[in-house]
Amino acid sequence: MSNEALDTVDPGCEDFRSLSSQVLTVNPVTDEASAQVFGEKVNELARQHGATCAHCSTYRQHIAGREERPVVLADSAIERLPVWLRWILVLPSAAAAYLVVQLVVILLHTLAEFFRALAPIVSVMGNYFPQLVNSIAGPYAFVWLGARVAPTHKFISAVTLAVIVATLSGAVLLLALASPNVSSRQPGGLIWILITGLIGTTAAIKASLDWKTRRQE
Q1: What is the DSSP string of 163-195?
Q2: Do residues 100 and 141 lie in contact, with contact meaning Cβ atoms separated by under 8 Å?
Q3: 79, 146 in Cβ contact below 8 A?
Q4: What distance lies between CA 87 and its chain's CA centroid?
Q5: CA-based nearest residue to 205, from 160, 171, 173, 168
Q6: Exposure string for 51-82, b = 16+ CB within 10 A, e = fewer
Q7: Residue 79 CA: distances (Å) to CA of 24, 45, 156
Q8: Cα(117)–Cα(35) distance, integer angstroms
Q9: How many angstroms separate the Cα of 206 from the Cα of each of 3, 94, 192, 198?
Q10: Is 30 helix (H, G, I), strand (E, B) or coil?
Q11: Diameter of the chain by CA atoms?
Q12: Are the C-beta atoms of 55 and 15 separated by less than 8 Å?
C-alpha cells in the first residue's frame, strides 16, 4: 500500500483519527488479508480527508516549510483504545481529572502553609485560596479531558460535561440553602458556594469553547 495519501494527513488530526478508528472497528485486522483491506480503506480515507480538511492543509504547509511537529505519545495511547471503550471512559476520565486537580491544589496549599513568607496570598486568603483555584481548574480539567477521551463529537461531549458541572453546582447550592447550619460568612457559606459555582461553570464553558476553537483550527 502506498503511503502517499497518508503523508498528506496530519498525524495529530482529531477528525482523521476518529474516522480511522471507526474503519478499524468495522474492519478488524485479524490476518494479512484483512490488514491489506484495512490499509486500502485507510489510504482512501486519507486521500478524501486530506483534500478537504483545513487542519491537514496547514500541516502540509508546515511540512513544505520543513517545520517539525511534536509527537504526543499520550494522544497515541488514547487513540489506540477501541471506540466503545473510549465512550465508556469519558465520564470516569473527566472525574479522575477533577480529583487529580483537587489533590494537587490541596498538596501545594499544604506545602505553602510551611512557607508563608514565600506565598503571602496564601496567608491572606487562607482556605479560600485552594477553593478558588479548585473551582477554576477542576471544572476546566473535567470538561477538557472528558472531551479529549471522546472518540468523536468532542465539542458536543464538552458541552454535555459543562452542563453536568453546572447542574452539580446548582445542586450543591440548593443543598446549602436547605441546610440551617451554613453560614454565608465562612468558607463553604452560601455566598462563597454561589461564587465558586459560577466560577466553576464559567471555567467549564471556557473548556467547551476551547474545544470548539480547536476543531476550527
Answers
A1: HHHHHHHHHHHHHHHH-TT--TTSTTSHHHHHH
A2: yes
A3: no
A4: 13
A5: 160
A6: eebebbeebeeeeeeeeeeeeeeeeeebbeee
A7: 11, 17, 19
A8: 62
A9: 38, 15, 21, 12
A10: coil
A11: 71
A12: yes
C-beta separation of 196 from 131 below 8 A? yes
The closest alpha carbon to 45, from 77, 79, 15, belongs to 15
Grid cell of 202 as nine digits: 464559567
Alpha-helical (H) ranges within 65-189 are 73-79, 83-113, 120-125, 128-149, 154-178
Query: What interhelical angle do 154-178 and 190-216 show, nearest 10?
Result: 180
The pLDDT of residue 118 is 52
Give the mean pLDDT per block of 10 residues along the chain (217 residues). 53 65 68 71 68 61 49 60 90 95 84 60 62 91 94 91 94 81 59 88 93 68
Rounded to 5 degrees, what are φ and ψ at 153? 50, 50
10: its cell numbers: 496530519
| Residue that has been written with the C-alpha cell 474503519 in this structure | 23
Set of cell numbers at residue 174? 440548593
How long is the chain?
217
Spell 134-156 as b/e; 16+ CB within 10 A means b. bbbbbbbbbbbbbbbbbbbebbe
